[in-house]
């Protein structure tokens, strides 16, 4: 068998740093950042998901890779940073309630608010993909107000039957990018049925 000619190939070296922020007990993963060190000036993008796996500090796999591939089609130029943000509740269990109830996690909110601000500053985009369970947090007044403030950079790849943005696992490279205001409008129509 003849070996292929590799003389015309070039090798480019790049560096990707992965930073993961956990709580002290490592039961909550607030943020994972992929930072492309060889990009000096680029966009900041993010995927906003509901309670991701908490203990893995490195790659998330095909779900977040597909989200990245979709978002990079909607920003100009290179990407400097890709964040995966958790929309993560504190779940309160009470003897008076037959189910867990979500409560507001201030630290989580601060990470989300800061990431949205940074993404907006670089003309990046945020792909919301928390699925139906995310309604536990998404409809808390503080989050509704925050998401309305950053509606111009928030998108989703589809809408669940309950009016929430599809989970990222349903995202593919040619998914539509539905704006946050359109998602809210469709969610209202679904709730009327």
Rg, Cα atoms, Å: 19 Å
Helix/strand/pairing class, anyone? alpha/beta
Low-pLDDT regions: none
Largest sheet report? 7 strands, mixed
Mean pLDDT across the residues is 82
Oligomeric form of this entry?
Answer: single chain
Strand order of the largest sheet: 1-2-4-3-7-8-9
Ends distance: 65 Å
What helical percentage do the residues reach?
A: 25-40%
Number of helices: 5
Task: Please write out the topology.
Elements: E1 16-22, E2 29-36, E3 43-50, H1 62-72, E4 79-87, E5 90-92, E6 101-103, H2 106-121, E7 126-128, H3 135-138, H4 141-149, E8 154-156, E9 178-179, H5 180-192
Summarize, please.
The chain has five helices and nine strands; from the N terminus they run βββαβββαβααββα.
Structural commentary:
The protein has five helices and nine strands; from the N terminus they run E-E-E-H-E-E-E-H-E-H-H-E-E-H. The chain is 27% helix and 24% strand. The longest helix has 16 residues, at 106-121. By secondary structure, the protein is of the alpha/beta class.
Task: Tag the structure with descriptive keywords.
193 residues, alpha/beta, seven-stranded mixed beta sheet, two-stranded antiparallel ribbon, 5 helices
């Amino acid at each position: 068998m003849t070996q292929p000619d590799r003389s015309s190939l070039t090798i480019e070296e790049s560096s990707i740093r992965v930073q993961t922020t956990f709580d002290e007990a490592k039961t909550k993963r607030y943020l994972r950042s992929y930072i492309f060190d060889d990009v000096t000036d680029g966009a900041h993008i993010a995927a906003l998901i509901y309670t991701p796996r908490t203990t893995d500090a490195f790659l998330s796999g095909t779900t977040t890779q597909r989200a990245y591939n979709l978002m990079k089609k909607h920003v100009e130029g290179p990407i400097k940073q890709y964040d995966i943000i958790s929309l993560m509740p504190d779940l309160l269990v009470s003897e008076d309630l037959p189910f867990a109830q979500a409560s507001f996690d201030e630290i989580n909110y601060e990470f989300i608010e800061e990431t949205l601000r940074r993404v907006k500053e670089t003309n990046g985009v945020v792909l919301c993909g928390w699925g139906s369970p995310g309604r536990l947090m998404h409809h808390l007044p503080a989050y509704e107000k925050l998401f309305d403030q950053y509606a111009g950079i928030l998108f989703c790849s589809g809408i669940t039957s309950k009016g929430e943005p599809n989970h990222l696992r349903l995202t593919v490279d040619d998914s539509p990018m539905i704006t946050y205001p359109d998602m809210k409008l469709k969610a209202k129509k679904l709730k009327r049925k």
